[in-house]
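Table S2 (text version). Query chain:
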Amino acid sequence: MILVEKLVRHYSPSGYEQAAVVPFLETLESWGFRTHEDEVGNAIGTIGQGSVQIYLVGHIDTVPGEIPVKVKKNILYGRGSVDAKGSLAAFAEAARLFAGSEEVTITVFGCVAEETDSRGAYHLLNIMPAPDYVIIGEPSGWEGLTLGYRGALRLDYVYEASRHHHGSPETTPAEAAVQFYHDLSGLFPDRGSHFDKPDLRIAELNTYSQNGSVGAKMRLDLRTPPGFDFSAFQDEYRQVRNSGTVTLGEPISAVLTDKRNALVRSFLGAIRDEGGKPVFKRKTGTADMNILAEWGCPILTYGPGDSTLDHTDQEQLNLDEYEKSIQVLKTALIKLGKQE
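Corresponding structure-token output:
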């Protein structure tokens, strides 16, 4: 059984990653990696002893919702096949060939909680020294290179009032929540699901009744383009929050990396060597790339699979593409080792 299928068969939604961490580390160790599990549960394997330090950062958690795992006509079906155990397994498969390398040291990370609070990535940022290059594992397609992700900010809105008859003129909590969303949306007249535009969506909206009061709780998801001014937004939202209370999450800045560096050139050459036509991509969501860009070194996102299948019940990975991506990674890593 190839590694990606093994990982997919070990269901590991956020908070329950141990089910996949253990077999992943066992496989890495059998391939000659120096392995350990860190304080927050990240799976870590290092190989090679060269001066060029390369981090391959994938995530081992998935969104919840099991999908029957099967391989049919060289297509792997199952939760995490695309997002993003395919990328993580491809990282390990490519890196294993560098066991005796005196040019590169490659560390593969299977991060936890990427689908929730990214505590795995934040932990790496706090404890690991900046490497020479970082490759994040998310589906881009084997010919694709993702150079950017929008930023994000979570807003939790709560409105509570005394119970009253629905026929009375008072604003209901649900109406207050919807009005806040409408007024806040007015701050972004040019919003949309595009990389260069902000976008505000209702993620959750619930009403409740307790102790003679009624209320509404709403979670909003604000996606932000490069250069978004979070400080100015904090002043602006207060002007439209009505009588509700708003709690802001930790802002995540958008990231857009430069095309002109050795990391991008290595991948462009590797994709072309495999007969592919490289495609640059910018994603409207967020990923651990947003966080780890703070290392300040060349960074991009790469991995097999169709990202439109992320989080769906149709997750599936073409294993021919998976093998292509491994070859691209091998070639790119060889090229990076020759940069110094």
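Notes on Table S2: The chain is about 30% helix and 30% strand. The mean pLDDT is 95.
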